[in-house]
Amino acid sequence: MTEITLTRFDDVRDAYRQKGLKQALYDAAGVIMADTLLTLWGDDHRKRRRLENRLFRRDTFEHYERDLLPGAVDEVLDPAAAAGRGDVVPLARRIVVNLTAAAAGVDRPEGTPAETDRLYSYGVKFSEGATAVHSTRDPEELKAEVSDALDRWDEDFFAPSLDRRTEMFSRFAAGEITEDDLPRDVLTVLVRNQDALDLPRDVIRREVAFYLLAGMHSTGAATTHAVHGAFGWFEDHPDDRRRIIDDPVFLQQCVHESMRLHPASPVARREAMEPVTMRDGTEMAVGDTVVMDLWSANRDPEVFGDDADRFNPLREIRDDVPRWGHTFGGGRHACIGMELDGGVPADEATGAPILLGTVALILRGLLARGAQPDPDDPPEQDPNITRVWWGRYPVRF
Ligand code: HEM
Q1: Looking at the predicted structure, is the pLDDT value of residue 4 above 70?
Q2: Total structural domains within the chain
């Protein structure tokens, strides 16, 4: 079997669109990722994605941005600002964990900070399991820890959430409650379609855990990278500290630029399920694999210019290329949470306003409270992972 590596932007885009290529990055992460949306193939993927897509629409994003996020940001950042310091990594993750739990369908009946912290620590362990391919830890030890965390989370959060939805769905089927009474979350969609999609309980459990980690982990990392990118930019453009708070388009350009430079995973990987011809004529046989080097493709000078390695939110990019490059993936597995996190531009035709997205809202919340790098406590890379990943990012307010 051969493996090819793609580093050019257009080649990676072509690979994402190839129908004969199957997800192959998460083989070492089965304990948490087996049979989740991201690893499904063909018809199974299409059916489940169609159902879950319905939850990720503009009206949902508007609801998050208007009704949920501002309160979630204040709740976490106000005490940190009052204390005069904080670490962006846990702050960002704490903001998103409750939002992601709402989208995934994980109830928080206590609604206390201690409950959020418990959920957060499960999410951290699930994220470690999902990124097993880039982990520096002993694989068996990591797998055992993730499996144990899944069992404890099941008892603590998942089983009660599942029971509540199963009961609600029975009442809905009996005509006692209406569609509007049902929660709008992934777990409810799965419970409703459990028979049609032939979903055993353990698959539902992993799918919900995957959503929890996908939202929390990638959003937290993207926020820390955005903070770092903005701080670097302000060194040469001090006036833009005010502009980023006041100008939503510029704020979003900063976020998208840091997303381009720091894709959640530096690579995607696919395996050929049938003979595939790539755009440059390379033939792939069944079982051959392709590594899509997103890190390099997102810094392709032909697309992003000679300064592609540098953070420049004002760069000009051709119209058919998203400012975040391939950071949200592409093709059938393109990130379902892309607009929730990356935002949606204003639409002149309909008059719909710009949606900033979660990362921009958190970045603005930090900067509006005066966040600055902590001169006595520099940020540090996470030692447990080979990805460029901040383990700590202390700031002063
Ligand atoms: C900045 C934040 C995020 C980044 C950079 C990101 C990135 C990605 C990427 C690259 C993929 C495709 C992976 C591949 O093709 O191998 C993906 C898929 C996915 N993401 Fe995200 N993601 C983010 C936030 C979110 C959020 C907030 C959610 C949910 C609330 C989410 C849910 C998912 C799901 C369910 C998939 C699987 C889609 C499918 O296979 O059809 N992500 N994400």
Answers
A1: yes
A2: 1
**pTM of the predicted protein model:** 0.93
pLDDT digits (tens, 9 = 90+) for 311-327: 999 999 999 999 999 99
Distance 262 CA to ligand 1 centre (A): 14
Query: In 3-state terms, what secondary structure has residue 135?
Result: strand
Report the percentage of the chain scoring pLDDT > 90: 75
- Per the listing, tokens 């990055």 go with 25
Is 375 a member of any domain?
no
For residue 136, pLDDT beyond 80: no
Range name among 90-99, 177-186, 354-363, 380-389 with the lowest pLDDT average: 380-389
**CATH code for the domain in which residue 163 is found:** 1.10.630.10
Q: In 10 A of CB 191, how many CB atoms? A: 23
Count the Cβ atoms, other than its own, within 10 Å of residue 198. Answer: 9
Distances from the Cα of 100 to the Cα of 80, 104, 374, angstroms: 21, 6, 29
First-to-last alpha carbon distance for the chain, in angstroms, is 54
Taking residues 123-139, what's their average pLDDT? 83
Structural domain boundaries enclosing 130: 3-369
| Ligand 1-lining residues (CB < 6 angstroms) | 23, 25, 37-38, 49, 100, 103, 211, 214-215, 218-219, 222, 264, 268, 327-329, 333, 335-337, 340-341, 359
Mean pLDDT value across the chain: 92
- Residue 337 structure tokens: 């949470």
Residue 396 lies in a domain: no
